[in-house]
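Hello Y.,

Per our agreement to keep a running log of every chain we model this quarter, I'm adding this entry. I've kept the format consistent with earlier entries: sequence first, then predicted structure.
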Amino acid sequence: MDDNAQLRITVWPGLPVPLPCYQRAHCRLSQARDALLFTYDKDELVEPRGETYLELYNLDLENPDEILAFANRHSVLRGEEMFQRLKAADFFQGLGLRQSWTATFRKWHRPVYEGAYRENLLSEDRPPHRGIETLFEFRFAAHVLRDMTSSWRLLSAGVDPRSLPWSGWVTGGDEPSYSSARRLLATALPVLLRNYSPVVGVGSDINLDESWQKPLISAEFPGSSAPLFEVCAFELFNHIAESATYRICQNETCGRPFVRQWGRSEHGQSRREGVLYCTADCAQAQAQRQYRRRKQAK
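Predicted structure for the entry above:
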């Protein structure tokens, strides 16, 4: 190897991998507005579009109604399951936290969960829901995914760290930097995707007389559906793999980052070149807003 050779590290497989499905949830807020009571629709498996994590990225996590609306559009995040997985992988070791996350969950999550469980069990005006997700654990998962997204934006495009959403909530309040971004992505993302393994589909029967078909590269995962936090992590991984470019929606009331614009046809196709808005609805809303301004100015 000569002195001019460069070592390039790339992620497998260098192109987007088909995403796992997730179960849609039907939710309502607890009376104290601190937990989601939800029921899965077993027959409704959702194929993600690939940018659920970017919708979560712009969510107001202090607003229970926005969290409820997101959960009803998609599903609950299953934050406690994410926490247990990170904890088992010693993710929190070495962060220098003043208080362990185990104690934090015990203080802020368990009492709310138990109160919502009693409310759900004793409800007389409606049948009990099958599951409970406290807003604390939802926010925990959302902050992990949000900080990982900001980490990739920082590392891939050199965005000013001060301009990025960064909670530092999970990692002890550290400031966004190249070192903290590298540490978070290198440690958390593999843990969240550890249940998946690469699969190359070439068909069971090989017939030399048939026309050539490109093998399908996918990721095998256990079960028929995945928790939403895994789906969001996989969406981020896909955008890392394809070196996707983030754009900011120019709709004044939106402003969320996106990669592809959706909803431009009855078949739901997407496109990524020469677009200013995350969805056709945002484009139409901004066009109508500008039309009203021009009409008023005349």
